[in-house]
Amino acid sequence: MNRLPESELVLIPGGTLITNTPEEGRALAMLIARHTIHNMQPDMDVLQCGRKMYSVNPDSLIAASQVVATEFQTIAIANNYWRQNYYYR
Fold first, then answer.
1. 75: how many CB neighbours lie within 10 A of its CB?
2. pLDDT for position 70
3. Domains in the chain: how many in total?
4. 12 is a domain residue
5. Which residues of 12-29 are buried (b: 16+ CB within 10 A; e: fewer)?
């Protein structure tokens, strides 16, 4: 098994959902989504083999986008919708 490194198996990278900006929140959502997939399938060879199928399947890409959107929503809530709609600046 070509196992991913432990750093790719951390469920919440950095240990917090708090971010300074929505842009950082979106990047964190994408990172969490990737780490979730890595935890479900930690074998890099299997992941890469499956990528050939789902990377060209519109339904798979939409499903992946939905996962990121859900993570982003969770992060927005944790950040109190970025301090009540950017008024923290």
1. 22
2. 96
3. 1
4. no
5. eeeeebebeebeebbebb
Q: Does 50 reside within a domain?
A: yes
Percent helix, strand, coil in the chain, to 5, is 70, 0, 25
Spatial distance between the Cα atoms of 25 and 28, rounded to a whole number of angstroms: 5
Residue 57 belongs to a domain:
yes
* Residue at 18: amino acid letter: I
47-63 pLDDT, tens digit each: 999 999 999 999 999 99
- Determine, yes or no, domain membership for 14: no
pLDDT digits (tens, 9 = 90+) for 13-44: 999 999 988 899 999 999 999 999 999 999 99
What's the pTM?
A: 0.83
